[in-house]
Amino acid sequence: MLTDVMFTVAEVISYYNKALICEYKYDGIRVQLHKFRDETKMFSRKLDDITSAFPELVEAAKNVSLPSSSFRNSDFILDGEIMAFRNSKPLHFQELQKRLRRKKFTEKFTEIVPVVYIVFDILYLGGEQLIKHPLTKRKEILSRIEFKKPILNSTYIVTNSIRNIVELFNRSIDTCHEGLVVKDPSSQYQPGKRGRYWIKLKKELDTIDAVIVIAEYGHGKRAGVLSDYTFAVRDPSDSNNSLKVIGKAYSGLTDKEID
Question: Does 203 or 38 have the greater pLDDT score?
């Protein structure tokens, strides 16, 4: 399920006009974790199988304690975010990329770049598809599941208070997260769709002048056009005033701007 973007709490409150589920926006990679019988697999948003890069998460998935009641078996599909994480703080995203780029994974990387998997949704459990349930129901089911580190259940608040949302947003930024994801409690899970059931609440930053040094072809509806850009800035400490790469961007431009 995909998100839309808003930049002010007032805009969010005005649009929904009801209490919302608010949780941190984690800076990692979006991952579904599938466990069926004795097999566990993890898939990125592009459907890449990234299981081999995170053996500690595969092991932790074996020890998930499910609510006993009405579910026929212990199979499940989770949605969440994998982050590089040490001493209760997220590490830079580039640290996580070290795990993903390894052609041959060794156990030492679980110590060099430790990770956590933050679970914020559940799509399937014990033979039952859950995506048509409202988010409040899916969250209630998640609250009854016992995860073992490094798999963690996300924390969130339910509020319609601007003050509460601003405080949580600032706490997220202070702890090196990206902001908040604000969710409609009644929303169903809609795979692959972008809408205003989930909103990324991000802070507008200062603009900078940068140079595009690499342009790559996009995917999906932007296949065939140069829509993925790598940016660089001048290095004033270098006598040659050379360009230094500062990051990439895949979104933010309209089709007309790209044309």
Answer: 38
CATH class of 2-201: alpha beta
User: Quick check: 221 and 207 in contact, CB under 8 A?
Assistant: no
Active site residue ranges: 25
- β pairing state of 156-159 and 20-24: antiparallel
- List, in sequence order, every residue forming a beta bridge with 157; answer none if it has no partner: 22
Going by pLDDT thresholds of 50, 70 and 90, the confidence category of residue 165 is very high
Compute the Cα dihedral for 176, 163, 187, 11 and give only its sign.
negative
Look at the block and give the residue holding tokens 């319609």: 160
CA distance 8 to 204: 9
Q: Are 75 and 35 in contact (CB under 8 A)?
A: yes
- State the pTM of this model: 0.77
Over 70: is that where the pLDDT of 177 sits? yes
Pick the CATH number of 211-258 from 3.30.70.260, 1.20.120.10, 2.50.20.20, 2.40.50.140: 2.40.50.140
CB 73 within 8 A of CB 126: yes
Half-sphere exposure of 148 (CA within 13 A, CB side): 11
Q: In what order do the strands lie in the sheet with 194-201?
A: 2-6, 194-201, 180-183, 20-24, 156-159
Q: Cα 6 to the chain's mean position, in Å? A: 17
- Write out pLDDT tens, residues 89-128: 888 888 888 787 776 766 777 888 899 999 999 999 988 9
